[in-house]
Amino acid sequence: MERLEIQRIEKEKWLQLEEKDLGRRNEELDELNLLEGCFPEAERLKHDTRLLSQWKHYIQCDGSPDPSISQEINTFISLWREETNETFEEVIAKSKLVLNLIEKLKLILLETPPYDLQDKNIIQYRGSILQLQELLQLKFNVATEILLRQASTLADLDSGNMEKIIRDENVTLYVWANLKKNPRYRSVRFSGTQIGFEIPRILATSDIALRLLHTHYDHVSPLHPVLTPVPKEERTSTVTELVRDEVKNVEEAISKEDQEETKQQESGSNIILEEEIKVEEQDDIEVQKSSVGEEHEPITCELEIKLLSKTVSTAQLLLIENAHEKPDTFEDNDVDLCQFTTLGGVYHLDILELPPQCKPVKGWMIVEILKEGLQKYTYPPETTEEFETENAFPPIEVTLEVHENVIFFEDPIVVRWDTEGKRWKTDGISKVSYNPEERLITFSLETFGPVTLIQDTHINMPYQSWELRPLGVNTVLLTVTTVFTEIQIQIKENLCMLASIKLRNKEHFSILEGKWMPPVPFIIALKAAGLNIFPTGHSHFYVVINHKVPLVEMKAYRQMALLSSAFAFGWSKWNLLCNSTKVVVKVREHLTKEPMNPDWDLLMFSGDRAQRLKIDEDSQTFSEALKEETEFHSTLYHMVKDFASEEAMEKVSSSDCQFIDCVCQMLLSTRLLSYS
């Protein structure tokens, strides 16, 4: 009986708290809506920044095209295509501008919200990217041919063969021309490096050249036809439809108010005498128009803000939605680019036919220029009947250097590009060995072509723990701990920086450390360095995750970002045990380097209700019981406000909108609540 009485009292208390929460819900939600006005404001500022960037480019007049304007980029491509006889060094110098244009176009596609991008613009930008990539590769091929025509004049005195290395920040060229055709010269090693080839006898006695063009970027993979169940175009159109509907509602509301006011004015005017109407009619109309316009301005502005707020939250929700279907795979040897990521650029390996050499004649240099241009040497040949030995065309041993700025947490996987199928494949490669100290990878390749190294995209997922804590005014530090590494990201105002990396509990230097970047370029740079802690819509097919309802997750990230300037948040083991409609996080006030109260509070949030939990991290079992003398709240923000100091809440209210938006974007991109 006593136990039942205790349960009855607890239930009664619970119902009273629920009733109290419902009574103030509208008030709390209205306050939260006002605070979350920072997100559409930040979006407006980003839009203005994009326009300012275009204007700055326009007034700069440096001769470079604006890649977003089709006429300018098409003119640039046409003019460069017409330029001939460019040396490799000249092409490399021009490639810096080309790569910058490609980067700008990619950023436009990634940074511009889906509701601001039209389908025709997406097609235009993607088309321009492909044209620039193809033309750049064509120019490298033509420049290689020009270089190989001079092979005899550049021959090494000792070996009699030509060897050339050209290094740049984006491209490295290794080229070797077989001028002597010595059957015993089978080991090709480029001076000052361990990079090279072990070639069979048939190549050692042929008029060939070997080229290794290492592009530190990957312009091959984007051609891969990734099948997505929810294409970006469809998602964009969904958001666009929402926007159009809201605009229609705005217009209808204004139109309705116009009609109502006109009716009121007409009915009121019937009382006035006809003579007075004739005299004052014109003045009345002018006054009415101006007063209606003045009243409509704040209404329209308010509706515009509401519209932008809705579209921003819809776009944020799309960032964390999971795809419903796994991408189709083609064959066993095909690489799934949703599961693996190419790292360190692409190694273009080619066996080329040696072009006719320059010949000095009476003070002139004469050279035969082949109409078909640079030709690839087919190895192995299509027909092998004329060759007696069975193993006349063995796989060629290749030794490559792994890019110094890329981190591989496991031995890299070597894959080759299938030109016909337009995809990366794992077959045709054998005897792979990797030396992590010297960063050298050796393997045997049956046929030459583009080669790259891949790593499991989700090697650092799920995360083991995470923490978000304030460092100062509009500055926080996000720490993500995985099986292999600990990554610290500093966020200050609207910029991000890699603060430190630890590999196996040891500090590891990265070229990205100390470089401040906006969120999207920062995420791209981290992924390119092998530090991928950014799940995609397909990641849940490859990682065991702690699934949470996207709307609940998004609301939690937005409110954590609002509070991040004065409160630290952290991973809780209980987040795994509550169901998918709720999230659990640790939180504590953090105004100084060493918080006054080192103990964490546990908060549970379901999207429309927040509560402090009675349990702590050391409790034996999970319980949703409320902490003594605490209440329910409709938002995470008001729950934290309940036990916060005035100083902390003042700091929260004075946070910059771009800082809050930047923190929210990093939380949405890392998805800490689902992937920990």
Automatic annotation (TrEMBL):
InterPro entries: IC97/Casc1_N, IC97/Dnai7-like. Residues 2-184 form the IC97/Casc1 N-terminal domain. It comes from the Eukaryota. Belongs to the DNAI7 family. PANTHER family: DYNEIN AXONEMAL INTERMEDIATE CHAIN 7, LUNG ADENOMA SUSCEPTIBILITY 1-RELATED. This is Dynein axonemal intermediate chain 7. It comes from Galeopterus variegatus (Malayan flying lemur). The lineage of its organism: Eukaryota, Metazoa, Chordata, Craniata, Vertebrata. The gene is CASC1.
